[in-house]
């Protein structure tokens, strides 16, 4: 009887009272991310808190909630709950115990060890699937980068995903989750173009560097930069200063991937790092190519 009453009391909790903080996962300029345990069932979640210091901060946080609610995909961080507490907007979402892709790449760099191609292909297939889902809903992520991609705890090679119970795409070990939709933008129509500048410098597409309008193809350029980084453990475009980096991105010349990399992956990077957005392949097309390869 007592346990039933306790369960009922936990179920009645809302807002911040529904969660028990465990530890700090990260801190940013706008707030923190905490590991929390949901009192009703003990589920571990990530709780992102955003200090509402201005109407702009509130707009960005509410935008992320709106975007996350519209998405339901095994490779996109799942929205769970949102509420306001002590002038902070709180967003509860999936907790990814494996950290982020930046941490994984830093470990590979420290060991001077590249990721196996089967792993790179699996990761790119997962991200292509996530982006196809996002773009089909006329949403541009606008900040594709390694630190915004999270890892579930890796199963054994070829083992099932911790999320779906199905084998991870392409036989890889890591189940990736695309997250941080704080600066994502929902386009009014499939022909709409965005004009505000967002993103991280190394991953910026040339049209954004030029201050030109852009659409979902901007995410594909950033995916191309990430693909290069996964393969080579370095960025395709670098510079001593931001203006120098921007000029190199606009110039479009980068060190070719070594011949030891398969022709398939080198071609994929080339098709994504096209200066003209209309020549970049789409996320959906990448999936079709991947499916065709797996049939042969």
UniProtKB/TrEMBL annotation:
ATP binds at residue 48. The keyword Chloroplast does not apply. Its EC number is 2.7.11.1. CDD domains: STKc_Nek. The keyword NADP does not apply. GO terms for molecular function: ATP binding; protein serine/threonine kinase activity. It catalyses: L-seryl-[protein] + ATP = O-phospho-L-seryl-[protein] + ADP + H(+); L-threonyl-[protein] + ATP = O-phospho-L-threonyl-[protein] + ADP + H(+). Residues 19-296 form the Protein kinase domain. Keywords: ATP-binding, Kinase, Nucleotide-binding, Serine/threonine-protein kinase, Transferase. It holds the Pfam family Pkinase. InterPro entries: Kinase-like_dom_sf, NEK_Ser/Thr_kinase_NIMA, Prot_kinase_dom, Protein_kinase_ATP_BS, Ser/Thr_kinase_AS. PANTHER family: CAMK FAMILY PROTEIN KINASE (PTHR44899), SERINE_THREONINE-PROTEIN KINASE NEK1 (PTHR44899:SF3). Belongs to the protein kinase superfamily. This is non-specific serine/threonine protein kinase. The lineage of its organism: Eukaryota, Haptista, Haptophyta, Prymnesiophyceae, Prymnesiales.
């Amino acid at each position: 009887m007592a346990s039933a009453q306790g369960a009922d009391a936990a179920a009645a909790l809302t807002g911040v009272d529904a969660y028990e903080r465990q530890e700090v996962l990260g801190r940013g300029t706008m707030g923190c991310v905490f590991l929390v345990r949901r009192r009703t069932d003990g589920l571990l979640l990530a709780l992102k808190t955003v200090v509402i210091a201005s109407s702009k901060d509130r707009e960005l946080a509410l935008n992320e909630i709106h975007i996350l609610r519209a998405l339901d995909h095994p490779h996109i961080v799942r929205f769970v709950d949102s509420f306001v507490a002590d002038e902070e907007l709180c967003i509860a979402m999936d907790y990814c115990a494996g950290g982020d892709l930046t941490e994984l790449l830093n470990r590979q760099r420290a060991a001077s060890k590249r990721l196996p191609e089967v792993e790179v292909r699996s990761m790119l297939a997962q991200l292509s699937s996530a982006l196809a889902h996002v773009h089909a809903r006329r949403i541009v992520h606008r900040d594709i980068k390694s630190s915004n991609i999270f890892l579930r705890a890796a199963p054994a090679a070829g083992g099932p995903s911790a999320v779906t119970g199905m084998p991870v795409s392409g036989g890889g070990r890591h189940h990736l989750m695309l997250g941080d939709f704080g600066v994502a933008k929902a386009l009014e129509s499939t022909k709409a173009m965005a004009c505000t500048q967002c993103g991280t410098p190394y991953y910026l597409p040339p049209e954004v560097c030029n201050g030109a309008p852009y659409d979902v193809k901007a995410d594909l350029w950033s995916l191309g930069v990430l693909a290069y980084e996964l393969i080579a453990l370095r960025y395709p475009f670098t510079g001593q200063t931001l203006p120098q980096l921007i000029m190199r991105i606009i110039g479009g010349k980068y060190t070719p991937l070594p011949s030891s990399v398969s022709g398939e992956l080198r071609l994929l990077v080339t098709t994504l790092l096209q200066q003209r957005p209309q020549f970049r392949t789409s996320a959906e097309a990448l999936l079709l190519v991947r499916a065709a390869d797996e049939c042969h």
